[in-house]
Amino acid sequence: MQIDNKVVVITGASEGIGAACASAFASRGALLSLTARSQHRLEEVGGKDALVTPGDLREESTRAALVERTLARYGRIDILINNAGVGLYQPAHGADLASVRAMFELNIFAPLDLIQKVVPHMKKSGSGAIVNVSSIGGKITLPWFTLYSATKYALGSITDGLRMELRREGIHAMTVCPGYVKTGFQRHVLAGRPPDLSGLGRKWAISPRQCAEDIARGLERNARTVVSPKSGWLLIALGRMFPATFDSRLEKIYWEQQANR
Ligand SMILES: NC(=O)c1ccc[n+]([C@@H]2O[C@H](COP(=O)([O-])OP(=O)(O)OC[C@H]3O[C@@H](n4cnc5c(N)ncnc54)[C@H](OP(=O)(O)O)[C@@H]3O)[C@@H](O)[C@H]2O)c1
Questions:
Q1: Which of 148, 153, 180, 254 is catalytic?
Q2: How far is the CA of 12 from the centre of ligand 1 (A)?
Q3: What's this model's pTM, rounded to 2 decimal places?
């Protein structure tokens, strides 16, 4: 899909990968509609041209306002980028259910509701794209955040299904699986502490800008799935080919993390 002159809604656009997407898509000539909770950061990211709708995406009223305001300003929505998300570093067998629900609300129900609100408008114009930002943790279950992985698996599965549901309507659906991206994500988790992956992280970490470029280029070639960085595909393939060995390695990291608490 060509991005020039397309109306692009980006959630979680006040910082990190979402802010970098705003810049990558604006540089390709997109018209932006941005949302997150922080109005001043959204205004900094979007400059004078972008439409900004601040609010908590776990609230239906924020999602409704985002879609209504975008349609009122631009008359259409061509691309929806469901990027806002949050993590939770607690074991599935002991996680605080209120935090789990808050995470599922932002990572699954908010994107699903936005998709349901936007698709009828895309159908009318006979074209559109839905980009859902999952994670490599949505391809490999990471035991230090099992439930976060569950949300990202679910989002990936929803995206695959949507692609088949909507292709004949001219609407494309793409999953994005970032690896370790240098953003405030680790600081913003709802609870718990990540394992010390600093060595691994340094080796594989990419900038939000690189991730956003991968997303924009993926959309330009109508990719089904973008793994960013590409080397993440190797990790996913190894996990599929050698599941027991892979589990043991991840289990070892998990128990090292428990011992360091
Ligand atoms: N960073 C990584 O290593 C990594 C790896 C794999 C996948 N991902 C995924 O990539 C996406 C972006 O992550 P990131 O690294 O850019 O994280 P980030 O730096 O923490 O940014 C998260 C964005 O979501 C917004 N947000 C958080 N809670 C919100 C809420 N309740 N309502 C509205 N907006 C909310 C934040 O803005 P406000 O605080 O202003 O609301 C911010 O703009 C997430 O879905 C994450 O799961 C990240």
A1: 148
A2: 5
A3: 0.97
pLDDT of residue 81: 99
Q: Residue 141 and residue 150: Cα distance in Å, rounded?
A: 8
Please state, in angstroms and rounded to a whole number, the distance separating the CA atoms of residues 182 and 184.
7
Q: Answer whether residue 131 is part of any domain.
A: yes
pLDDT digits (tens, 9 = 90+) for 215-261: 999 999 999 999 999 999 999 999 999 999 999 999 998 898 788 77
**Whether 148 is catalytic:** yes
Domain that holds residue 146: 7-259
User: Alpha-carbon distance 102 to 109, whole Å?
Assistant: 10
Instruction: Locate the ligand 1 atom nearest the alpha carbon of residue 41 and give its number.
Output: 40
Among protein residues, the one with the nearest Cα to ligand 1's atom 7 is 135
Residue 30 has pLDDT above 60, yes or no: yes
Which residues share a beta bridge with 80?
Answer: 9, 130
For residue 36, give the ligand 1 atom closest to its CA.
Answer: 34
Total domains present in the chain: 1
CATH number at residue 221: 3.40.50.720
